[in-house]
Amino acid sequence: MAVQSSKFPRSMSGIPGFDELVGGGFHKGTVNTITGSSGTGKTVFASQFINYGAQIGENGMIITPSESAEYLKREMMSSFGWDFSKLEEEGKLTIVDVTDPDLRLQKSIEIDPVDFLINFRKLVERKLKEVKPARLFIDDLTAFFMAVEAPFKIRSLTDDLFGTIRASGVTSVVTIGTAFSTNQFLEYGADSATMLSRERIKNNLIRSIYIMKMRGSKIANSIRVLDISDDGISVSSLSPYS
Ligand SMILES: Nc1ncnc2c1ncn2[C@@H]1O[C@H](COP(=O)(O)OP(=O)(O)OP(=O)(O)O)[C@@H](O)[C@H]1O
Ligand SMILES: [Mg+2]
Fold it and tell me: Is 193 among the domain residues?
């Protein structure tokens, strides 16, 4: 019997060329990781997902543990003209800056990383209940997970955080860096995992993307060229090797 796609609604990413790779977009209500080393385009990808959502009536939330909210807003405005301050004013976007002292979520080195991650999960739960966004972007938690030594603790903290996000029904994109393989724990717990990279072809570095997994969906098993321009990110139909 054919599976009805309407039973499993998708959230269009807003990244031209991406949704075709994953059978029509992210499944609604899932946790989707975007992994890559520094400068590969993770923050741009996730910001575009949020910006696109705001244009089609799906309100967004951004939680930034690693960069200050002001810096992220400035960067997206100057690079692509995405006006996150305006979206906030219009009530289409909520930005939660964990560096805000009012949240009392200090990330100083005196704080135990497990305590930080437990408090972070509670903050996410509270904010999702309060605001009820359709889309969520959490920017780069790797540094905090990296500081947790026992692998079983990383697994259970990941499961707790992702479980909280799924329970709220929001469709989320979580970016992760590649330092010390912590990314594998996060990817394991996610519903889909996308990898961003740079391929060295002769004397050129070419941005690339591939889908590592998407639960319950057919995926394209090919590496594609990723373009970043003044319009944002797009996925080309070409392979970096062709
Ligand atoms: N208008 C633009 N045209 C082309 N490339 C751009 C433009 N604006 C930014 N970029 C490029 O996009 C990249 C920024 O990507 P991004 O900040 O998403 O990386 P990241 O993976 O989040 O890195 P990090 O791990 O350091 O946070 C930079 O390499 C930058 O040069
Ligand atoms: Mg980034």
Answer: yes
- pLDDT above 90 (res 104): no
Residue 93 to residues 109, 195, 228, 232: CA-CA distances in angstroms?
30, 26, 23, 19
In a domain, 3, yes or no: no
Question: Ligand 1 pocket check: which of 228, 229, 231 to mutate, most ligand atoms within 8 Å of Cβ?
Answer: 228
The domain in which residue 32 lies consists of 10-235
Express as a percent the part of the chain with pLDDT over 90.
69
Closest CA to 189 of 145, 148, 220, 147: 145
Mean local confidence (pLDDT), 16-24: 95
The verdict on the CB of residue 172 being under 6 Å from ligand 1 is no
CATH number at residue 176: 3.40.50.300
**Tally of structural domains, the chain:** 1
